[in-house]
C-alpha cells in the first residue's frame, strides 16, 4: 500500500467529522434564530442536525454501513420537510398546487429506498446477481430523489418575489450544493457499477459548503449581500460545465460501446472522435461562430447585454492610449465605440466649415468611399436636435421614420458594411459622428445598444471638444508669442526714437558746440548699433533666452549708459568699482538704458539720477536711484512687472517686465525699493564671472 493510500482514509474520516461538527453548530444556531428564516428556521435546523448525524456515521462507520444508509434517508427526508417549509415563507403553498404532491412523492421514494436497502442489504450477502440488481435499483432511486429535489429548488427560487429571493437564495444554495454533488456522485456510481471512493469522501466537502452557506445566510444584515460573478467567470464556468457534460457523455457512450463490442464499437469510437475534432476546430477557427455563441449566451443568461463596468474600463483605456499605441486620438475614438459592439471597422466625421461634416479619420476601413461633403448642415441639424442613433439596416428596410431617412446621406445607405451611425453631442452641439461597420455576427440593435452608444458618444464628444480647445489655445499661444515679440521690438524702437527726438531738439540750440557735436555722433552711432542688434536679436524676444554668458565689465557698461544720457539729463555715475560679471553685454546695456530712461521720466527737470556699480561678496551690484514721484508697494506688487500695463500715455508696459526677464535669464535678480514722493531704487544683482561656476555647483548640490 502506498503512503497516499494509507493516509487518505484518515483524511476522509477527519473531513466527515469536521462536517458533522459544522452541521451541529449551525443547526444549534438556526434553532435559536427563529426570526431569520421564518417558518422554515426550525425545519432547516432539523435537516442540518440529520445531516450531521449522517456525516458522523460516515466518518465512524463508513458510507456502506446499514446505519449510515438509514441516516442518509433521514437526512433527505429532513431536507424535503425543510423545502416544504421554505415554500411557506412567502405563502406560496396555497398558490403552487403541484408542490405538495411532488414533495409527498419524493418522500415516498425515499421511504421505498430505505425499505429496499434494508431488504436487499440482508439478501445480497449470499446472492451476487441480486446484489448487483439491488445496487442499480437503489442508485436509480437516489438519482430520482436528487433530480426531483433540484427541480423543486429551482421552482422555490425562481417563483419567489424579488425581496424574498434575498432570503431564499441561501437555503436554496445549500440544497443545490448538497443534492447537486450527490447527483454527480450517484451518476458516476451507476455508470461504473460501484461507489467511487474519491467522490464519496469529497461528499463531506459538499456538506461543509452547505452548512457554511446557511451560516452566511443566518448572519444579521447579510440579506443584502449580493454575490454576482463577472461575465468572464460566468463564461468560464459555462465552459467548464460544457466540458464536464462532454466528459460524462463520453463516459456513458464508452460504457455503451463496451457492452456492444465488435467492429461496430471501434467504428463508433472513431466517428465520435472525428466529429468532436471537427466541431472543436470549427468553433475555435470561426470568428463568426464565436460571435454567435457570445450573443446567444449574453441573450439568454444575462439580464443586460453589456457588462458596463468592463466596457467602461476598456473604453477609458482605449482613449488613454495604452501600450504605447501610435494611433491618433481620432482613431482611438472610433475604436472605443467599435469595441463595444464588436464592430471591426469605423469612420469618424467631424464638423467642418458651415456646420457640415467631413471625413476626419478611418479605422480599419480603407475601402469606404466618403464624399467631401459627408453630411450637409441640414442633415446635421436633425441629429443635433434628436440625438438619434441610426440603425442603417432598419433604415434600408424602410422601417425608419421619414425624417431619419432624409437625414442619412445616400452614400451611407449604399455602403454595404455601414451598420450604425452614432452622433457625438457636446452641450447639444454636434461635434461629429461615428460610422460603425457591421460586426461578424450581425444583430438588430435594441434599446440597450442605443442608450450605451448615445452615452459613449457624449463622452467622446467631450474628449474631442477638449482636444480642439487645446489646439486652439496652442495656436492662440503662438499668436500671443508673436504679438509679444512685436511689442518688444516696438518698445525698443520707441526708446531709440525718443533719444533721436531729444537729440534733434537739442541740435537746434547747440549745433555749433563742438562738444555737443561729438556727443551727437556717439548717440547716433549707438542708436544705429542698437537697431542692428535689435534685428539680430529679434528671435530672442518673448522667451528672453540668453544663449551664453560672458565676462562683462559692469562699470564700463554703466559709464557708457551714463555718458549716453548726459546730454539729455543729469545722470551721474557716483561709484564705478571694477566689476566683471557673468552676463551678456547688449542685454545688460538694454536693461540699464531702460532703467535710466524710466528714472529720467519719473524725475523732475534738473533732478539728478544716480548710478552706482560695486562688488558685494560673490556678486556685482548696479543701482539706479532717482528722486522722482516713486511708487506704492501695491503698484510694485501688482502692476510694475505686469506686461502690457503702462501708466504712460502711449506706453507699451513691457519695459520693466522685459528688464526683469533679461536679468533672470542671466541668472540674476532685479530688486525694487520705492516710496511715493521720495523716489525709487532699482538694484541689479548679477554673479561675478569668476564665481559663476562655483555658484552653479552649489545650486546643483542643493537641488540634488
From TrEMBL:
Domain of life according to the entry: Bacteria
Residues in the signal sequence: none
Broad class of enzyme this protein falls into: transferase
TM region(s), chain numbering: 6-31, 43-62, 102-124, 130-154, 166-186, 198-219, 240-258, 264-287
Keywords from the UniProt entry: Kinase, Membrane, Transferase, Transmembrane, Transmembrane helix
InterPro entries xref list: GAF-like_dom_sf, HATPase_C_sf, HATPase_dom, His_kinase_dom, Sig_transdc_His_kin-like_C, XrtA/PrsK
Catalytic reactions on record: ATP + protein L-histidine = ADP + protein N-phospho-L-histidine
EC number, as in UniProt: 2.7.13.3
Record PROSITE patterns: HIS_KIN (PS50109)
Histidine kinase domain ranges (all copies): 488-690
Pfam families, alphabetized: HATPase_c (PF02518)
Protein name (Swiss-Prot/TrEMBL): histidine kinase
Species assigned in the record: Novosphingobium arvoryzae
